[in-house]
Design a protein that fits this description.
- By secondary structure, the protein is mainly alpha-helical.
- It has a domain of about 30 residues.
- Helices cover about 60% and strands about 0% of the residues.
- It is elongated.
C-alpha cells in the first residue's frame, strides 16, 4: 500500500488515503487481537 501512496493519492486524494490507511491498520490490529474474524458462507440452491 505504501509503495503506491502517490498513485492512490493522485486518484483519490490525500484525505481518502489517510482514512483508508487508518482503516487498514485498525483492521490489522483487530484481527491480531481476536476482536474480529471472518466467516465464509456457501449457499446452494436445492437440486430438483
Amino acid at each position: 500500500m505504501e509503495s503506491n501512496r502517490e498513485k492512490i493519492e493522485g486518484i483519490y486524494g490525500e484525505k481518502f488515503y489517510r482514512l483508508w490507511e487508518l482503516w487498514m491498520y485498525g483492521t490489522k490490529v483487530s484481527f491480531e487481537t481476536g476482536a474480529i474474524g471472518l466467516t465464509r458462507l456457501h449457499f446452494k440452491l436445492p437440486q430438483n
